[in-house]
Design brief:
Blueprint (H helix, E strand, L loop, with lengths): L1 E6 L5 H6 L4 H6 L3 E6 L4 H9 L6 E5 L5 H10 L3 E5 L16 H13 L2 E4 L2 H7 L6 E3 L21 E6 L5 H17 L3 E7 L10 E5 L5 H6 L3 E4 L5 H4 L4 H8 L4 E3 L5 H4 L6 E3 L3 H12 L2 H19 L1 H17 L2
Parallel strand pairs: 1-2, 1-3, 3-4, 4-5, 5-6, 7-8, 7-10, 8-9, 10-11, 11-12
C-alpha cells in the first residue's frame, strides 16, 4: 500500500498524535508512507495534486481544504480519507456565535466526497454522519513508551495541581482560578503548575510557570499530583478529544475535569477521577485528592489502565491499519 498524508503543520498536536506517531507502525507493516505539507504557492500544490495517482490512498488530516483545491484533489486521488479531531465546522469557544456558514460549507463539501471519515470522538462522528455514512471513530492515542509512571513518594509538604496545554486553552484554566485561590486559603500546601507557552498570574495562589517542550513534557507531567481539565459546555468544547486527560493518566496522575464531550467517556466519576460542573464540585473533587495521597495513587493507576486499554498507540495503530486496508481494498 502506498499512502500519502496531507497535513497542515508537523508541530501541531493533531498532526503529531494522529499522523506522525503512526508512521513507524505503518512502515513496519509494509506501508510506503509519504508526508506532505499543505503549504506553498498554488503551483506547488497543484504539482503535488498531479502526483496523487501514484498513491493508493490519500489521508487529509484536519485541514478544511478549500472546495476548489479539493475538487482537483478528488479528481486525481484514487481514495481519500479525511481525519479530524476538532469541531472545525464551528467557531471556537471564544466566539460569541459558534455557527459559521463558510466553515460548515467547507466541512460538508469535503466530508461528502471522502471515501471514509475518521473522527476523534463520538460527537465529531455524529457531525460527519450528517454528510457521509462511512464514518469511524479512532481516538487520539498516546505512545506510552514515552511516558513512565510517576514514582511513589512519601507524603510531602507540597501538592501540585497541574495543567498542560496550549495558550488557546488558557481561558478554560482562567475560569478555574477563583476556585483554586479559595482552596489555597484553606490548603496552603497547594500550588498550581502551568506548562504552556504563555501563563496566568494570581496574587492569591502560587503559580509555577514552565515553558512547554517536547523533551521535558513527560517529566513535567510526573511533577503533577493532580491534573485538571476545565472546559466550557459549548459545541467547540464537545469536539475536543481529551488529550490533556490522557497525558495526565499516562504517568499515573488522577484528574478532575468538566464532563463535556469525550471527557465523560475517559473519566469514570469516582473511579479514575472526578467530574466537576460548578465551583462546589471542583472544590470537593480537588480537596478530596489533596487530602488523600493513596487515593491519588489508586486513581492515577486506574487512569493509566484506561489509556492502555483504549487510548494507547498500541491499541489504536492496528485499528487504523485495518481501516486503511479496508478503504484500499474496496476497489
Amino acid at each position: 500500500m502506498k499512502l500519502a498524508f496531507l497535513i497542515h503543520d508537523k508541530e501541531a498536536p493533531s498532526c503529531r498524535y494522529r499522523v506522525l506517531q503512526y508512521i513507524p507502525y505503518l512502515k513496519g507493516h509494509g506501508v510506503d508512507v509519504s508526508v506532505r505539507l499543505f503549504r506553498g504557492n498554488l503551483l506547488d500544490r497543484y504539482r503535488f495534486y498531479e502526483s496523487l495517482g501514484q498513491y493508493d490512498l490519500l489521508l487529509i488530516q484536519r485541514k478544511l481544504v478549500h472546495p476548489v483545491d479539493f475538487w482537483y484533489i478528488r479528481r486525481k486521488a484514487r481514495k481519500i480519507i479525511y481525519d479530524f479531531d476538532d469541531a472545525l465546522m464551528y467557531r471556537s469557544a471564544k466566539s460569541k456565535n459558534p455557527y459559521s456558514i463558510s466553515r460548515r460549507a467547507k466541512f460538508a463539501y469535503l466530508v461528502k466526497r471522502a471515501d471514509l471519515v475518521i473522527a476523534g470522538n463520538a460527537f465529531l462522528k455524529s457531525e460527519a454522519l450528517r454528510h457521509n455514512d462511512h464514518v469511524v471513530t479512532i481516538p487520539t492515542p498516546l505512545d506510552l513508551s514515552r511516558y513512565r509512571l510517576k514514582e511513589r513518594v512519601p507524603n510531602k509538604d507540597v501538592v501540585t495541581i497541574g495543567w498542560l496545554g496550549s495558550r488557546s486553552s488558557l481561558r478554560y484554566l482562567r475560569s478555574l482560578l477563583p476556585t483554586l485561590e479559595s482552596i489555597f486559603r484553606k490548603h496552603p500546601e497547594v500550588r498550581l503548575k502551568i506548562v504552556c507557552s504563555e501563563f496566568l498570574d494570581s496574587r492569591n495562589l502560587p503559580i509555577v510557570k514552565k515553558q512547554w517542550s517536547w523533551e521535558d513534557e513527560a517529566e513535567d507531567l510526573r511533577s503533577f499530583d493532580i491534573g485538571v481539565m476545565p472546559l466550557s459546555n459549548d459545541l467547540w468544547s464537545k469536539g475536543k478529544c481529551g488529550l490533556k486527560i490522557l497525558q495526565y493518566y499516562s504517568v499515573g496522575v488522577p484528574v478532575v475535569c468538566t464532563p463535556v464531550g469525550i471527557n465523560q467517556d475517559i473519566v469514570t466519576h469516582g473511579v479514575n477521577g472526578f467530574w466537576a460542573l460548578n465551583e462546589g464540585q471542583w472544590e470537593e473533587g480537588l480537596v478530596t485528592l489533596i487530602q488523600n495521597q493513596a487515593l491519588r495513587r489508586e486513581m492515577g493507576l486506574r487512569g493509566r489502565e484506561t489509556v492502555e486499554k483504549t487510548y494507547s498507540l498500541e491499541a489504536n495503530a492496528p485499528r487504523l491499519f485495518e481501516v486503511l486496508k479496508e478503504v484500499v481494498d474496496q476497489g
